[in-house]
Amino acid sequence: MNSKNQKIKIVADAEAMGRAAAETLVKHISESLQTRDVYSIALSGGSTPRRLYRLLAGDSELRGKIPWKRVHFFWGDERHVPPDHPDSNYHMAFEAMLSRIPVPPANIHRIHAEDPDADQAAGDYVRDIRRFFDIASGEIPRFNCVLLGMGSDGHTASLFPGSPALGEQKRLVVANWVEKFQSYRITLTVSVFNNADLILFLVSGKQKADALQAVLEGDWAPDRYPAQRIQPKHGSMLWFLDRPATKRLDVNRRGPQLD
Ligand code: 6PG
């Protein structure tokens, strides 16, 4: 894939991935803030990014390089649960990072997934995004960074195979019914992710190997493998992969191991 705006970085394991992704993110924040007042990042959920979040908050060298008061945190997606629920992506990020850094509460743009009406929660989030980016209806926000993971079924954010949100062309955020969980998820849509300056995909573990091979090397099948829909429109995309996740990839693609 190593095209001009899409690169793969292979690291030994999840620990090395956290470190490599953190260093990349700190560098991008620093560069971005040379020419703008604030930095906007959409966090991903799941378990993979937890190590990254803990490092950003806990590693004194990394932590000290980030002007936290100029960073605004959003989420790429959220489960339809309250913020203190163990499944909440906000809860995970709060425990791992946000509660441990000097970020002003106004910089935390949580999805109000406690709202029993998931569509209402999606609408509230759109209003918050439009206000922050000062955009009108029909305009797409340009996040400085979006973090993404990938499930073993090839989903990313809450864009699950065959789910209604996959084809969304107009809305920025949707309440997406996910059949296999029999629940709604609130998720940014593909055009928002693709509009970011920097897309960081973090994929770790041998259980992701088959889906990763299909996404990166298989036929174009974006309904079956929604992660294929993530294609940077004018920014760049970096895949951080640990060695176990790459075991199905073409040996030439795997390239040198980057520790
Ligand atoms: C979520 C994430 C989801 C996640 C993948 C991978 O809400 O869970 O947005 O897309 O990134 O499911 O999850 P793991 O990192 O736990 O493997």
Model description:
This protein is an alpha/beta fold and 259 residues long. It has one domain (6-253): Rossmann fold. The protein is 30% helix and 19% strand. The protein has 8 helices and 9 strands. It has helices at 14-32, 48-58, 60-64, 89-96, 118-133, 190-194, 209-217, 251-254; strands at 6-11, 39-43, 71-75, 77-79, 145-148, 173-178, 183-188, 198-203, 236-242. A hairpin with a 4-residue loop joins strand 6 and strand 7 (183-188). The longest helix has 19 residues, at 14-32. The mean pLDDT is 95. The chain binds 6-phosphogluconic acid. 6-phosphogluconic acid (6PG) binds next to loops.
> Main sheet?
6 strands, parallel
The radius of gyration computed from the alpha-carbon positions, rounded to a whole number of angstroms, is 17 Å
Query: Could you state the order of secondary-structure elements as H and E?
Result: EHEHHEEHHEEEHEHEH
What is the 3D form? globular
Query: SS-based structural class?
Result: alpha/beta
Which architecture name does CATH use?
A: 3-Layer(aba) Sandwich
**How many alpha or pi helices?**
8
Q: Can you tell me the residue ranges where pLDDT is under 50 for at least 5 consecutive residues?
A: none
List the quaternary state of the chains. single chain
The overall pLDDT average reads 95
CATH fold assignment: Rossmann fold
Total domains, how many? 1
